[in-house]
Amino acid sequence: MDVRKVGIIGAGHMGTGIAHVCALAGYDVLLKDVSSEVVEHALATINGNMAKQVRKGRITEEQRRAALQKIHPVDTLEAFAECDLVMEAITESEEAKRRLFAELCPHLPPATIIGTNTSSLSITRLAASTDRPEKFMGIHFMNPAPLMELVELIRGIATSDETFHTVREFVISLGKTPAVAEDFPAFIVNRILLPMINEAIYTLYEGVGTVEAIDTAMKLGAHHPMGPLELADFIGLDTCLNLMQVLYEGLADSKYRPCPLLVKYVDAGWLGRKTKRGFYDYRGEKPVPTR
Ligand code: NAD
Predict the structure, then answer these.
(1) 51 with 21, same domain?
(2) Known catalytic residue: 223?
(3) Does 190 participate in catalysis according to the annotation?
(4) Whether residue 262 sits in one domain with residue 173
(5) Domain shared by 14 and 105, yes or no
(6) How far apart are CA 232 and CA 40, in angstroms?
(7) CB of residue 190 inside a 6 A radius of ligand 1
(8) 82 and 204, same structural domain?
(9) Active site residue 230
(10) What confidence category does residue 47 fall into, taking pLDDT thresholds of 50, 70 and 90?
């Protein structure tokens, strides 16, 4: 089966990036969110990000113009009846995703594949809430989707070989590299990355190093492009805590216990870049460590 038209539901951070990548690869894209204002905002973001790519010589002006014309805002779920693949990229809530699938499925022809961008929910459980578990799988883009080369592919227990191969070819056609992960909490990247970030926060909590020392150590001592605390602020500390809780509860192993200092920052509403304060304070010209 060939994918030609892609539907994307959720035009937040990830949906915006996924629409950008699909349109540049030549796919027709339908984009929906809870309101047309959100979709308009997403289109403006895509326009700006593509203009940046033109300035850097990564794409041509013609490619930018052609890609922008490929993205069509829609405001009903019926519109997705034309799609070969529908990507769900709404808020990370199992209840919200289940509700969406219940409303969406009756509008889709039987051949349409549904992909979810969830970072932490069980693919098998989400698949079971649709009318097509064999045509459902995890297609986990990394943030920011236009820049990150990897896409994790996660099959649910019922995902068919045909669905898997179609999605794999689709992901490769986007210029991305797939990595196959089993359906276990947080898959591969976050299973490894988040415990490292949590350990960096324990290192701070126990006074082994300051924010600056920890980030410098990992940048210069392990050649990480960003320090773990800087990265935590970028991801969002609430998201980091949520992922650690998923690992802790899902794998029932104390080694995934979220650091109490991470919990304290989240309780304070210091969630990182998005609230202008986390392990760094972003309110001034330059980020300043908060400890
Ligand atoms: P976000 O909050 O930026 O965007 C979610 C969007 O979904 C919002 O615009 C919201 O209005 C919309 N939405 C909610 N319910 C909807 C509905 N019923 N119909 C249509 N739109 C709806 O979130 P995000 O960071 O883009 O995350 C989206 C998904 O991608 C989540 O499952 C998340 O776990 C996953 N993910 C996030 C990241 C990341 O770093 N942000 C990385 C990989 C995967």
Answers:
(1) yes
(2) no
(3) yes
(4) no
(5) yes
(6) 29
(7) no
(8) no
(9) no
(10) very high
